[in-house]
Amino acid sequence: MHRFLICILTGLLFFAQSSLPLPAQERTDATSQAAVPQDADDQSAGGESKPEYVRIRRNERRLADALETSVILFGNSKRYPQTTVELIGAIHLGETQYYDQLNSMFSKYDVLLFEAVMPKEAVRRGFRPGIGGGGRRLTDEDQWTEAKVGLQAISVLQLGAKDALGLEFQLAGVDYTSRNFVHADMTQEEFEASMAKRGESFSQMLAREMGKAALKQQQVNPLAQSLDLALSLLSSDRKYRVRRIAAVELTRANEGDAFAGTDGTSTIITERNIKALQVLKAQLKKGRKRIGLFYGAGHFPDMEKRVLDEFGYERLSEKWVTAWELRAPAAK
Predict the structure, then answer these.
(1) Is residue 330 a part of any domain in this protein?
(2) How many distinct structural domains can be found in the chain?
(3) Cα separation, 316 vs 34, whole angstroms
(4) Which terminal CB of the chain, N or C, has fewer other CB atoms within 10 Å?
């Protein structure tokens, strides 16, 4: 059970970095070596100030209350005057009310750019995650659901995380049928070609992340790890304790270097960001004034820099949306 829970937390970190989970055959037991910090209540709130895209909100007693994702507003671009762009951070497991709030927010944009690594033919036919273009339900043989549409197969790991945390998948919670939704990601064919050109493989990226995790693990007390996980499993508020542990992993998305090679770039983050911002530029040239870009929060360290440098925008404000409650209502 200890190993299984660590695997869940590691998988959630991968979720934060990209909407394209690793193929099941590429995952190995070695992912369970990733370091798992103690309960989020024990984490320091200090440290160097830098942009945050996923954060833990704490109460007056400094106890973890909620996991939140950012919505960052950009404007004042001389290149694209009288336009705004908002980066809407996503984590791919959330509470129902989280996705309800996002769905309401999405309706205010002229266009909402979304991520999904889909086959070229699916994009050409206007398919959306979970449903066909124009609101038409697809037939069973060509339906693109959580098991398809650039996500390949939802693994046992992800299903275990969903159940353990009492959450639902983004693809089930977000309404992708809205007319203002515009695909802004690589096709599956583009993604695979980029990985081949760069000499990348999922097993190689996993090995690199395992090395990073091993270094972090040296700073974590293994006995404290085991005790914290054991208490989580035995506690009456188990779901929320496990969420608090997982929340610490997800906040590492702010580091923005998952899957990066020696040059600090990767297909899974960098190349997909480039493609997304090409679509953003095309929409701006069409005269769209208010644009939302809904992407995994792990993409934002690189993406924000590009929005500032390449588009000439200024960061105007940020707000936060609650993705997970980290304490039972009675405890609050």
Answers:
(1) no
(2) 1
(3) 36
(4) N
pLDDT, greater one: 207 or 129 = 129
Angle at 183 between CA 178 and CA 189, to 5 degrees: 145
Question: Hey, CA dihedral for 246, 251, 253, 258, is it positive or negative?
Answer: negative
C-alpha distance from residue 65 to each of 105, 244, 321 (Å):
23, 9, 13
Partners of residue 69 on adjacent β-strands = 54, 321
Q: Is residue 32 one of the residues assigned to a domain? A: yes
CB atoms within 10 A of CB 119: 16
In the predicted model, is pLDDT for residue 308 greater than 60? yes
Structural domain harbouring 272: 2-325
pLDDT in tens, 275-297: 999 999 999 999 999 999 999 99
β-bridge pairing 84-90 and 64-75: antiparallel
Q: Would you say residue 67 lies in a domain?
A: yes
How confident is the model over 37-47, as a mean pLDDT? 43
Strands 93-94 and 64-75: unpaired
Helix (H, G, I), strand (E, B) or coil at 229: helix
Q: Scan for tokens 């353990």, then name that residue.
A: 164
103-117, 150-164, 289-303: lowest mean pLDDT where?
A: 150-164
Domain assignment of residue 127, yes or no: yes
Tokens of 205: 């990226």
